[in-house]
């Protein structure tokens, strides 16, 4: 996800359009830079490798600057970059991979997309390389490797930044109600009644966007049954959605919906316009479960809400009797760079040298921090302390580095086919058009597809 805590963020809907498999509307002519691939990651000079990634500032500029630094230090083995607009990238890379003409370095989201490349033999197995270069792996958040790992083998280099889902709350609304932030699921249900009595919506939710609803289920599944519940789905185990913990999580979810825990009309609110965030900072809603990328837009659009310290944030609380570790989180554990299996040996060596010397080097780390994002690198506490938003960035860092499991968002982890079915089924579930049993039956039907 292209996000920027300090300023405006990309629409997560646009990002997930790629992952969920809807068709690319833009033509390749709309791409930021669309020079032709020379096949197998070829470039313009001897030994050159190619690298495709997304347009859009500030991250495009950071990526490009990293390539330029690498090329300056390695003039005989350069990397030729090409940047593509978000809506066209997925189709472009799919076509190139299928034709055996992918770039050497492939920017991506890991999870389901990476798994499909692995199964088609289109990307390199990097497991032994990471073993031989343990220092490269050891400096990164351990949880960032989950979405890069398929069948216990590593197929991509974790890169860039982290964005967990967190529970935001309006401190001023809580103070007026004499309430405290929830420490359990029982607290959440009790707070629903507290805020309804005050004529305040307990939770803001942009339910029309579907993936916003999904965040609730991700946490409930995790807190009740532990990370292994969805892991079984990801690994394609037959009837994995039938886990009793899944049924309990779905039941609790609909209890919250039926209790009017969400803003009235939530199913007609879209996340793209940030209306859900506005409900929180204007005091019309007390809480909001959302990604840390929303911090920047609340800071820029919410008047003095963030600056005055009215915004609270916390990890999702435990569920009574649940097996999950309340220190774990979900969301975006990083971005990922794979190497085309069709690249030449020389090009693969260039890519690995890029991983070792340029990806998340000191300059890139500082650039991400300056834009209000947290790089997936351990030991950046000093730099965070000197940043523009030290308190919030430290919270993001601590949440991410202390999580034993950082689960990737479901619609990124699943295949495009399964992800679209998931989002559609979740929408029906939150509208109470289907219940837990039908949800489970539908989702079991797309396991492994």
From TrEMBL:
What the entry lists under Pfam families is as follows: SBP_bac_1 (PF01547)
Signal sequence annotation: none
**Which InterPro entries does the entry mention?**
Bact_solute-bd_prot1 (IPR050490), SBP (IPR006059), TAT_signal (IPR006311)
- Tell me the protein's name: Sugar ABC transporter substrate-binding protein
Query: Which organism was this protein described from?
Result: Winogradskya consettensis
The taxonomy runs: Bacteria, Bacillati, Actinomycetota, Actinomycetes, Micromonosporales
């Amino acid at each position: 996800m292209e996000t920027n805590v300090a300023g405006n963020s990309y629409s997560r809907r646009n990002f997930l359009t790629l992952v969920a498999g809807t068709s690319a509307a833009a033509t390749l002519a709309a791409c930021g830079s669309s020079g032709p691939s020379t096949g197998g990651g070829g470039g313009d000079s001897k030994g050159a490798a190619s690298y495709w990634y997304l347009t859009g500032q500030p991250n495009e500029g950071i990526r490009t600057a990293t390539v330029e630094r690498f090329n300056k230090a390695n003039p005989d083995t350069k990397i030729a970059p090409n940047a593509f607009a978000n809506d066209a990238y997925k189709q472009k890379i799919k076509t190139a991979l299928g034709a055996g003409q992918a770039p050497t370095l492939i920017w991506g989201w890991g999870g389901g997309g990476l798994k499909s490349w692995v199964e088609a033999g289109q990307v390199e197995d990097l497991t032994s390389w990471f073993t031989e270069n343990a220092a490269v792996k050891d400096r990164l958040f351990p949880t960032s490797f989950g979405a890069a790992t398929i069948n216990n083998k590593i197929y991509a280099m974790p890169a860039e930044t982290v964005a967990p889902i967190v529970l935001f709350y309006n401190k001023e609304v809580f103070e007026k109600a004499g309430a405290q932030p929830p420490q359990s699921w029982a607290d959440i249900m009790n707070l629903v009644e507290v805020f309804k009595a005050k004529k305040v919506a307990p939770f803001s939710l942009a339910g029309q966007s579907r993936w916003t609803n999904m965040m609730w289920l991700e946490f409930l599944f995790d807190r009740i049954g532990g990370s292994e519940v969805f892991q079984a789905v990801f690994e394609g185990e037959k009837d994995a959605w039938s886990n009793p913990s899944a049924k309990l999580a779905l039941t609790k979810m609909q209890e919250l919906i039926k209790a009017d825990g969400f803003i009235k009309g939530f199913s007609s609110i879209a996340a793209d316009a940030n209306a859900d965030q506005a409900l929180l900072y204007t005091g019309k809603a007390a809480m909001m479960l959302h990604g840390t990328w929303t911090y920047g837009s609340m800071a820029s659009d919410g008047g003095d809400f963030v600056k005055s310290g009215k915004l609270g944030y916390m990890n999702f609380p435990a569920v009574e009797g649940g097996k999950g570790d309340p220190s774990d989180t979900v969301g975006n554990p990083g971005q990922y760079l794979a190497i085309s299996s069709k690249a030449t040996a020389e090009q693969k060596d260039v890519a690995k040298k890029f991983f070792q010397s340029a990806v998340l080097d000191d300059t890139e780390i500082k650039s991400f921090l300056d834009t209000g994002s947290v790089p997936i690198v351990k030991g950046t506490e000093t730099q965070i302390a000197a940043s523009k938003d030290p308190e919030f960035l430290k919270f993001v860092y601590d949440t991410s580095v202390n999580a034993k499991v950082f689960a990737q968002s479901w619609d990124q982890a699943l295949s495009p086919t399964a992800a679209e079915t998931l989002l559609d089924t979740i929408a029906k579930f939150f509208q109470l058009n289907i219940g837990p049993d039908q949800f489970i039956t539908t989702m079991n039907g797309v396991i492994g597809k």
